[in-house]
Design goal:
The chain is an alpha+beta fold and 453 residues long. 54% of the residues lie in helices and 18% in strands. It has nine helices and twelve strands. The chain has helices at residues 3-54, 62-68, 142-194, 209-260, 264-295, 307-322, 340-356, 400-404, 413-423, and strands at 74-79, 85-90, 108-113, 116-126, 132-140, 303-306, 326-329, 335-338, 362-369, 372-379, 427-433, 437-445. The strands form three sheets. It has a five-stranded antiparallel beta sheet, with helices on one face. The radius of gyration is 51 Å and the shape is rod-shaped. Bound molecules: adenosine-5'-diphosphate (ADP). The site of adenosine-5'-diphosphate has 21 residues, from helix 7 and helix 9.
Length: 453
C-alpha cells in the first residue's frame, strides 16, 4: 500500500473513531438528561396526586381524581396493603399488562416495554381509612424516544457532513507530506537514469522537516557533483601532466634510435633527457599516489613530539644533499602533539620549494604564541606573483614562469602540503613579495585540537 493511501486511511479512520466516540457520548448524555427531566416532572405530578388523594373524603371518587392527573401516555395504579389493585386508570394502550419492576428501595425505574422506554414511580398514599396504599405512576416516554431518534439522525448526519472536510484535509495532509518525497524520488530516478546531479526546487520559505530534507538532498547532490567534477578534473590533469614527460621521452628515444648510435653527444643529451623526465614522472606518480591515498584518510598517529628535533632531522639531510645553507632558530623545548612522520613530510615539501625557487639562504624560525608555535620557512628567491597566491594549493598549479624553468616540479607539492597540514590540524599561509622572496607560515597547535579531526 502506498504511503499516501496509508496516511489517508489512517487519518480518516482516526477522525471517524473520534467522531463516533463523541457522538456516542453525546447520545448517552442527552438520554440521561431527558430521563432525568421526565422523572422530575413525573415526580411533581405524583406529589400533587398523593396530596390530592390524601385530602380525599369518603365521598370523593378516587377514580375521578386519578383521571385528572393521568399522564398523556401513561397509567396510574393504586394498590392496597395486600398488593391488589384498588383503582387503575390508563391512557396508553398496551400498558395494562405492564408491571414495573422496582429495585429494592428504589422509588423509580426506567424500563423498555414493547421497544419503548417507560418510566415508573411509586409513592405511598395515606388513605381515608388511615391505611397506607401504594401509588404507581407509569409513563411511556414517547417524546423522549422521538427526540432520541431525531438526535441519532442529527448526529449521523453531522458525522457524514463532517467527514467531507476530514476527507479533504486528509488528502491535503497526505499531499503536503508526500509531495516532497515524490519529488525527491522523481529527481533521484531522473539523476540515476541521466547520470546527472539534479536538485529539487526548494520551497521559497520553509523551515519544516520536509524543507530541510529538500535542502539537505540538494546539498548532498551539490557535493557529489563537486566531488565528481574535481575527480574528473584531477584525472584529466594527471593524464595531461603525465603526457608531457612521456612525449619528451618518446621523442628523445626516437632521436636516440635515429642518430644516437653514431653521435655520442646526441646520445648523451637523449639519455639525460629521458632520465630527467623519468625521474620527474616517478616523482609525480608517487605524489599522485599519495594524494589518492590521502583521500582515503591516511591514518595519522598523534604523539607528543619535540619539534626542534623533528625540524633538525629534516634540515640535516637537505644541507648534505644540496650543499646549501639552511638555518634554524627555534624555541627551546618546543613540544606538540602531532604525527612526527607526516610533520617531517610537510616540512620537506616546503623546504624543497624554498630551495628550488631560490639560490641563497633558507631560514627556518619558530615563535611561541598562546598554545601554538609559528614555524616560518623563509627564502630570498623570486617570490610568487600576487595573482598566483590563491591558486598555490590547487593540484597541478604552477606559476607560469616556473613551468618553463628547469626546476622540475609537478605542481602537486603544495596541494599535498595543504592536505597534510589539514590532517595534522595545522594552518598554512603563504606570504610572498615578488623579487624579494617567500615566507610560508605554519601554525602548529601544541595540543591536538579534537574539533579539527
Ligand atoms: P612544484 O612541484 O611545481 O614545486 P608546488 O605545488 O610545490 O609544485 O608549488 C606550486 C607552485 O608554487 C610552484 O610551481 C611555484 O611556481 C610556486 N612556489 C611554491 N613555493 C615557492 C617558493 N618558495 N618560491 C617561489 N615560488 C614558489
Amino acid at each position: 500500500m502506498k504511503l499516501k493511501t496509508k496516511i489517508h486511511l489512517f487519518s480518516t479512520l482516526l477522525m471517524l473513531v473520534i467522531l463516533t466516540l463523541t457522538n456516542v457520548a453525546v447520545y448517552f448524555l442527552f438520554e440521561k438528561m431527558a430521563y432525568d427531566t421526565e422523572r422530575h416532572q413525573l415526580q411533581m405530578q405524583a406529589d400533587q396526586l398523593t396530596t390530592s388523594l390524601s385530602k380525599m373524603t369518603e365521598q370523593t371518587d378516587p377514580h375521578a381524581v386519578m383521571l385528572a392527573y393521568l399522564p398523556q401516555h401513561g397509567a396510574l395504579r393504586l394498590f392496597d396493603e395486600t398488593g391488589k389493585i384498588k383503582t387503575a386508570v390508563d391512557s396508553a394502550s398496551g400498558l395494562k399488562e405492564f408491571t414495573p419492576t422496582f429495585e429494592q428501595k428504589a422509588y423509580y425505574a426506567v424500563t423498555k416495554y414493547q421497544g419503548e422506554p417507560v418510566i415508573s414511580l411509586r409513592a405511598p398514599v395515606i388513605w381515608t381509612d388511615g391505611t397506607v396504599l401504594e401509588l404507581q405512576v407509569i409513563e411511556k416516554l414517547v417524546e423522549v424516544k422521538l427526540n432520541l431518534a431525531t438526535l441519532v439522525f442529527v448526529l449521523v448526519g453531522a458525522t457524514l457532513i463532517a467527514m467531507i472536510p476530514i476527507l479533504l484535509s486528509s488528502v491535503a495532509l497526505s499531499r503536503i507530506l508526500i509531495q516532497p518525497i515524490e519529488r525527491l524520488i522523481d529527481t533521484m530516478t531522473q539523476s540515476r537514469r541521466a547520470g546527472t546531479y539534479e536538485t529539487i526546487a526548494a520551497p521559497a520559505k520553509g523551515k519544516d522537516e520536509m524543507a530541510q530534507m529538500v535542502v539537505t538532498f540538494n546539498e548532498m547532490m551539490g557535493q557529489l557533483e563537486e566531488n565528481f567534477v574535481q575527480q574528473e578534473q584531477f584525472v584529466s590533469n594527471a593524464s595531461h601532466e603525465l603526457k608531457t614527460p612521456l612525449t619528451v621521452i618518446e621523442s628523445y628515444a626516437r632521436l636516440l634510435k635515429r642518430r644516437g648510435f653514431d653521435n655520442r653527444a646526441v646520445a648523451e643529451e637523449s639519455v639525460d633527457a629521458i632520465l630527467g623526465e623519468s625521474v620527474r614522472m616517478k616523482e609525480m606518480i608517487e605524489q599522485l599516489l599519495h594524494l589518492a591515498r590521502s583521500n582515503e584518510q591516511l591514518a595519522y598517529q598523534f604523539k607528543e613530539a619535540n619539534l626542534n628535533e623533528e625540524i633538525e632531522k629534516t634540515l640535516q639531510p637537505m644541507r648534505q644533499a644540496y650543499a646549501r645553507e639552511f638555518t634554524y632558530d627555534g624555541v627551546p623545548n618546543a613540544r606538540a602533539v602531532t604525527d612526527a612522520v607526516k610533520f617531517r613530510q610537510l616540512l620537506y615539501i616546503l623546504l624543497d620549494n624554498a630551495r628550488k625557487y631560490s639560490d641563497a639562504l633558507v631560514k627556518v624560525t619558530m615563535e611561541e604564541s598562546e598554545s601554538a608555535y609559528m614555524i616560518s620557512i623563509i627564502d630570498y628567491g623570486n617570490g610568487i606573483p600576487k595573482e598566483a597566491l590563491p591558486h598555490l594549493f590547487t593540484r597541478f598549479y604552477r606559476v607560469e614562469e616556473d613551468r618553463s624553468r628547469k626546476t622540475g616540479g609537478t605542481g602537486l607539492g603544495l596541494a599535498i602540503a595543504k592536505e597534510l597540514s589539514d590532517g595534522l590540524g595545522m594552518m598554512i599561509k603563504v606570504e610572498s613579495i615578488q623579487g624579494m622572496g617567500t615566507t610560508i607560515r605554519l601554525l602548529v597547535p601544541q595540543k591536538r585540537l579534537l574539533t579539527e579531526f
